[in-house]
Design brief:
Layout lengths: L1 H6 L6 H44 L7 H34 L5 H8 L1 H11 L2 H12 L1
Helix pairs in contact: 3-6, 4-5
Length: 138
Amino acid sequence: MVLWFRFAPSGLSTAESLRIFGTGLLADAAISVAGAAFIIGLCSFLSSVLALPSLLLLPLGFHPWIPVRRALFRIAVTVGLMVTLFLWISEWYFFAEFESRFNTVAIDYLIYPHEVFTILRESYPLPWIGLTCFIGGL
C-alpha cells in the first residue's frame, strides 16, 4: 500500500486498481505459502539434525536441548526480522528505480552479484541500511 500511494500511476480506474491489487494479492499469497513450506521444512530438518546429540545425552540425565532450542528460536526470529526489513527497504529502492516490484531484473542480482553489488555500494548507503536491518531485527 505504501508503494502504491507513493508510486501509483495516474489515470487508473477503480476496476484497474482492484485488478492490480488482486493480482498482487494472489502473487503474494503464493510466495507466502511456498516460503512458509520451505521454512517449515528447513526448520524441521535442522531441528532433527541438531536434536540427535541431545537425544544421546537423555539416558545420562542431561537435558541440554531446551536452552539450545530457545536460543535457536531467538536467532531464527532475529534473522527472519532482519531479512524482512532488508527486503522492505530494498523493495522501496527497487520500485523507485524500476517502477515495479521485484521481477526478472532482481534475478540479475543473483547471476552477476559482484557487478551489481559494486553498483549498489556506490549508489546506496548499504552500511546504514544493513545497520538498520540489524537493529530492527534485534
